[in-house]
Amino acid sequence: MMTSDEIRAAFLGFFESKGHKVIASSSLIPRGDPTLLLTSAGMVQFKPYFLGEAVAPSPRLASCQKCFRTTDIESVGDSTHLTFFEMLGNFSVGDYFKKEAIAWAWEFVTRHLKLPTERLWVTIFLDDDESFRYWRQLGIPEERILRFGEEDNFWGPAGDSGPCGPCSEIFYDFGEGIGCGKAACAPNCGCARFAEIWNLVFTQYNQDKDGQRTLLPKPNIDTGMGLERAAAAVQGKTSVYETELFASLIDNISKFIGKNYGSDDEVDKAMRVVVEHGRALTFLIADGVMPSNEGRGYVLRRLLRRAALFGRKLGLEKPFLNQIAGATIGSMTKVYPELQQRRDFIFQVIELEEAKFRETLSTGLELIEIILGERETKRTGKISGEHVFRLYDTYGFPVELTREIAAGRGFSVDSASFEREMEKQRERARASHKFALAEKGLAGLTGEFDIKETTFSGYSNLRQKTTIVSLLAGNNSVGTVNEGQEASLILETTPFYGEMGGQVGDTGEIRSASGRFAVSGTIRLTPDIIVHQGRVTEGSFSVRDKVTAEVDRERRLDIARNHTATHLLQMALRQVLGEHIQQRGSLVAPERFRFDFSHLTAMTNEEISRAQRIVNDRIRQNLVVYDEELPYKKAIEAGA
Fold first, then answer.
1. What does the DSSP 8-state code read for residue 110?
2. d(CA 172, CA 194)
3. Sign of the Cα pseudo-torsion (207, 212, 213, 214, in order)
4. What pLDDT was estimated at residue 444?
5. Which residues of the chain have pLDDT under 50?
6. Residue 298 phi, psi (nearest 5)
7. Which of 410, 351, 346, 342 has the alpha carbon at shortest distance from 382?
8. pLDDT value of position 639
9. pLDDT score at 634
10. Torsion (CA) 443, 449, 452, 457 in degrees, nearest 10
11. What's the distance, CA 261 to chain centroid?
12. Which CATH number is associated with domain 556-637?
């Protein structure tokens, strides 16, 4: 019987022998792709090659990719679903196509994994006769090649338009004794009898916005085989949790709680949640995901808190997730050495986050019991959004967790009223922004004037000939402002940087043939409209006047130095504290700067000294500073 390590090695070795270049797994945090929360498929790191944005190191590639899918979080607990998994894949960038992909897939599963052919089924897209022909040539009976529509056997495009194509899947049949038991049971039934172990995607079309498809000049191959599912089939296990990938983790938690796996359905479910989420969050933290209330950090927090809740059902009153993390590191570090390298950091994050949730867990659960008790007494089937919001905002219960607990007792959550509470919170944030505008004398102006966005020219020059497009005095739009009057000017083009992202706005002077205006501050009415605040020191200004805007050069240079210093400090903090350090906020002013970041604990004096030395060393090197404008993806990849 092959182990998962042997399956992984066999797959990569097989495709290497077929001329593929083996590429290491990329991070769970997609690099340079803001459209993705987490890496969810093997092809993610290869997207630039498929899109023609970069040249592939080889037209044939293979990998074992760490993947995470958020859609399955609440399903984890049954015998099949996972959030974190490993995806084995082979890829062709305009090289081979269906014939080779199908032949090699069949060769690998039958000769190398030695899966019995009578247990293998194939699905294809409705009109993909080409794939049907290749599968038949391999000797697969016609009755075990099933055709399905776009919902099951067509991939893409990702959005309204783009590359897409049919796919063909290989299913493993665990036998009639498993699953629904219906005579008509077949692949895509949805029961546990048939497991999809490999998906071959044939990207051969480009679809336009009208839904019309044309053939790509060079079609691509993108395949994915879930390692855990493949291991279950090879090892004759009907559940991925019975493979050796999870058996050691389940055995670990079983000894920890003194209960055997397989003796009670509810205990088994809780064990599966605890070990799956514990394994997943270990990998997430190792790749730099930190707990937070948004984005991938919120996903991590959801996992940890759901695991803590199910751990409580197992009688685990004390922190336990580092027990799972340690076992995961021990079993997986040979393949993923970053786990051992970041072991202490992983433990530290889990320990602090688990302790933080446990402070409110008991109180939150008591409140849920009171709420559910009231609903049972009143025979009301829904929990109000106000209650759900309070659990979220005060006790740290993700709404998905409250929904799951309620569903277990036969109740639902009033999602509409919860969303109204969230909108109230967002409105409070917007009100705070409006208050900030009011403090600057611009209350009520946003959206009231038809002003085109300001063109910013201040990266390339600090002096600009331009035109006044609007004059504001107080909260009013005016045609002219005179000597001694405080006002706000909006220019067609400006070299003045408007306060944004923690960096203060520029100061300087605006001059015309008939007046001078001292700019005391530059802010943004909206992200695209820059407002110059100050006082008319001489003469007057009117809308459409031709003017020269000039930034205070020395002050801008001081700000630029401190801006560069924030980048140096971020680099130093990553070296001293770890790659998880990310900027959360900042202040960049001419005389000082502040850099906000998230870390588990306060920095020690030694850590502060080390960071200072690194920054000062770089300053003394007198490195050349240059600016470069890049597409967002490339800027992120470069560390911006």
1. I
2. 6
3. negative
4. 45
5. 433-436, 443-448
6. -70, -35
7. 410
8. 57
9. 61
10. -30
11. 33
12. 3.30.980.10
User: Exposed (0-12), middle (13-18) or buried (19+): which is 86, by Cβ within 10 Å?
Assistant: buried
Architecture of domain 455-551: Beta Barrel (2.40)
Q: Which of 534, 488, 472 is nearest to 509 (CA)?
A: 534
Query: What is the token pair recorded at 258?
Result: 């003194």
CA distances from 262 to 75, 81, 242, 271, 319 (A): 19, 18, 10, 10, 24
294 phi and psi, to 5 degrees?
-150, 160
Q: Provide the pLDDT for residue 156.
A: 83
> Residue 201: what pLDDT?
96
Chain centroid to CA 25: how far?
16
pLDDT of residue 450: 56
Query: Model's pTM, two decimal places?
Result: 0.73
Query: What per-residue confidence (pLDDT) applies to 440?
Result: 52
Q: Is the omega angle on the peptide bond into residue 34 within 30 degrees of 0, that is, cis?
A: no
Residue at token pair 């194939």: 122
Fold of 4-237: BirA Bifunctional Protein; domain 2 (3.30.930)
For the residues of 455-502, what is the DSSP string, one character each? EE-TTT-SEEEEEEEEEEETTEEESEEETT-EEEEEESEESSPPSBTT
Round to the nearest angstrom and report the end-to-end CA distance of the chain: 48
Partnered with residue 521 across adjacent β-strands are: 533
User: Would you list the domain boundaries of the chain?
Assistant: 4-237, 244-347, 455-551, 556-637
The type of residue at 244 is E
Angle subtended at Cα 417 by Cα 412 and Cα 419, rounded to the nearest 5 degrees: 105
What backbone torsions phi and psi does residue 260 show, to the nearest 5 degrees?
A: -90, 140
Q: How far apart are CA 221 and CA 99, in angstroms?
A: 11
Residue partners of 223: CB distance under 8 A and separation at least 6: 42, 89, 90, 91, 101, 105, 198, 199, 200, 201
**pLDDT (tens digit, 9 = 90+) per residue, 587-634?**
999 999 999 888 878 899 999 999 999 999 999 998 887 777 766 556
CB 569 within 8 A of CB 611: yes
Which DSSP symbol is given to 95?
S
Q: Which two tokens stand for residue 249?
A: 């983790």
Please provide residue 116's backbone torsions phi and psi, each rounded to the nearest 5 degrees: -65, 130
Tell me what pLDDT residue 177 has. 84
Q: Which residues contact 345 (CB under 8 A, 6 or more apart)?
A: 285, 578, 580
Mode of pairing for the β-strands spanning 120-125 and 145-148: parallel
Phi-psi region of 443 (alpha: psi -120 to 50; beta: other; left: phi over 0): beta
Backbone dihedral angles phi then psi of residue 548, each to the nearest 5 degrees: -115, 120
DSSP code string of 570-612: HHHHHHHH-TT--EEEEEE-SS-EEEEE--SSPPPHHHHHHHH
Q: Tell me, what's the pLDDT at 431?
A: 58
DSSP 8-state secondary structure symbol assigned to residue 523:
E
